Amino acid sequence: MFSRGRFASGCLARCFAWPALAALLFAAGCATLTGVPVEDSALEFQLQGRIALRYGNEGGSARIDWRHAPAADDLFVTNPMGQGIARISRQAEQVKLVTADGKDYEAKDAESLTERVLGWRLPLAGLPDWVRGRPVPGRPAQVKKDDNGRPKEIAQDDWNVEYTAWQGELPSRLTLSRTGIQIRLVVDQWTNAKQ
């Protein structure tokens, strides 16, 4: 079913149920980005990284492998040991989520789907731009810049995105937050998907 190996058995249905492992992300130190830099104008990319998530009184950590293109996304989430937790895929305007126990869920957008299945919202509509350090074009946003002219903070679509580290022109650490949820992302590798 999944090209990246078998899902871990016994994974909790609400995902990321490893509070003790959340500290791994924070103890990891600064990430070093490798791979090909992604141009601001690039519409396709792939990234690998680590996330720490807090929603309500729950939290956890995971690794992600995300391939993005204008009409499609494929986001594979594994626990820190590499066992599959969930796969979120988007084709045009249909989003599908497959859990570790093989259950399929579908919706028109990732935010409502992840909230219904996992209990927290993944802002997949804005994420491709935010991870590259820019607001989504054509939508209202407030941007605060750092001394180097790079975004320090973006407020858009009820999300606040804070950039805490950069490697060249690309963010290497960022925190996305809104009421009741915080997602911290460390990008380990960027790759242009076309190459």
Describe the structure.
The chain has 195 residues and is mainly β. It has a single domain, classed as Lipoprotein localisation LolA/LolB/LppX (outer membrane lipoprotein receptor (LolB), chain A, Clam), CATH 2.50.20.10. It is built from three helices and twelve strands. The protein has helices at 22-27, 110-118, 127-130; strands at 34-35, 45-55, 58-69, 72-78, 84-91, 94-99, 104-107, 142-145, 151-156, 159-167, 170-178, 181-191. Strands 1, 2, 3, 4, 5, 6, 7, 8, 9, 10, 11 and 12 form a twelve-stranded mixed β-sheet that branches. A hairpin with a 5-residue loop joins strand 8 (142-145) and strand 9 (151-156). It starts with 21 loop residues before the first helix and ends with a strand.
Summarize the helices and strands and which ones pair or pack.
Elements: H1 22-27, E1 34-35, E2 45-55, E3 58-69, E4 72-78, E5 84-91, E6 94-99, E7 104-107, H2 110-118, H3 127-130, E8 142-145, E9 151-156, E10 159-167, E11 170-178, E12 181-191
Parallel strand pairs: 1-12
Antiparallel strand pairs: 2-3, 2-12, 3-4, 4-5, 5-6, 6-7, 8-9, 9-10, 10-11, 11-12
